[in-house]
Amino acid sequence: MSASPLYIKLYEDLKQQIIEGQYQSGDKFPSKRALQHHLSVSNTTIEHAYQFLLDEGYIYSKPRSGFYVSDIESLPAIPSDDFPFVMNEDEFESGTMNERPTQYQYEFNLSEIDAEYFPLQQFRKAARDVFDESHLSLLHHGHPQGEGILRQQIAHYIFNSRGVTSHPNQIIIGSSTEQLINLLTDILDDSQFIIEQPSYPPIKQVLDKKSIPYIQNEVTSTGMRMDNLYDVPNNIVYVTPSHQFPTGYVMNLKKRTRLIQWAQQQGDRYIIEDDYDSEFRYFGKPISALQSLDTKDKVIYLSTFSKSLFPSCRIAYMTLPKVLLERYQALPHKGRNTVPVHLQHIVAHFMQGGSFERHLNKMRKVYQDKLTFILEQIQQYDDQLIVDGTLTGMHFTLTVDNGLSLEECIARAEAQHLRIIPFNRYDNTETKPKFIIGYGGIPFDQLEAHTNALIEALVI
Q: Structurally, what CATH architecture does the domain formed by 107-117+358-458 represent?
């Protein structure tokens, strides 16, 4: 008897058929009804398998038409459960980005914000101010590292909010975390990495795609395990210390200090600190960035505006130590900056006028209120539901400890018209059913219904 649920085996078999070329890009994929009849398995099993294929971009749906195979060459050449949110271009054009074969009434999704509170008027004013200045330079290619006005604002912001010390000239702006990591691997040529287990998907995707050596160190409740740092030749450590993805754990000061000391002992050692959603800390004293502890320029600081502004903003940034900045400048093929010049100026104006800071302060309260409400409801069932990773960010983990299996939990969620993300999509070593609960995008007036559906699905 297989240790994996049937829907996992089906999903893996179908994925392998696509990878091996049994289906070509654009081919119509079998309907769920046809596959159910052919394999004599339940509709729920096929629903789960297709949902994984959809989430990971191997297939896409067209309204009233069916499922189609995605462009295989554009898919990541790694196990797809390490990078679950790949969208196919046709989905955007056909308007099916938010459409799934199963229409869920309740969803605890990651990477969503509460757009209701976004200061659209102030952002529109920043855009108007930028274009009213009649800058013809907005029509041309910008600086390869990003526009100076935005790098200046970022340097000011990360110093005041996270304690990160960086000159604007050390900052590089990109369109995504993945793009900047890809650039970093060129700068850190011939390096070997240590990353977290489980890990943030973009880092593993880039390393696997470029065949760069790495090992994975287990993440505990106090941060990544470090007992082997001096036993291996790997010289680059990638961590998400302020809110580890996906566990939500925060690295303690002892491990932060130990990691800094390790990096400072050899010239080729560096730490990549991904601070992806640290703006939102709700309980306890704010923890400064790992980079703020560094006195020898050994930390590369990386972050994004996806959560603090909006996901479609597509602006990420990193700060380079001076030695690595020289390496970057010496790269023969750096390419042009991929973030639109006008958008960089708009965000810079938005930050310059204080609107960004006011927006963050407001959203910190909004998300804290949402989290507090959900936790208060779940707390009544603390003998069955174990909560972790609630100090920071816009997601936490929920472990089910009442005898239900993962497949039973998912089936019960389906019955509630509820979509929740299994933790084993990122870490298949977890023995108990565990889920990643993203709550940022749920409107307040729907929060109680969402939470009730979650409890109904997971509590017995």
A: Alpha-Beta Complex (3.90)
Question: Rounded to an integer, what distance in angstroms lies between the CA atom of residue 117 and that of residue 441?
Answer: 11
Between vectors from CA 270 to CA 269 and to CA 272, what angle results, nearest 5°? 155
Q: What topology does CATH give the domain 6-86? A: Arc Repressor Mutant, subunit A (1.10.10)
Nearest residue to 406 via CA among 388, 389, 381, 425: 425
Query: What are the residue ranges spanned by the domains of the chain?
Result: 6-86, 107-117+358-458, 120-354
Helices 43-55 and 6-19: crossing angle in degrees, nearest 10, is: 50
pLDDT confidence of residue 264: 95
Contact 250, 220 (CB under 8 A): no
Q: How far is CA 293 from CA 165, 258, 259, 271, 273, in A?
A: 10, 11, 10, 12, 12
Q: Give pLDDT tens digits for 267-289.
A: 999 999 998 877 777 766 667 88
- Could you read off the pLDDT of 335-349 as tens digits, one per residue? 788 888 899 999 999
Residues 28, 67 contacting (CB under 8 angstroms): yes
Q: pTM surpassing 0.70?
A: yes
Question: What is the rounded CA–CA span in Å between residue 423 and residue 429?
Answer: 10
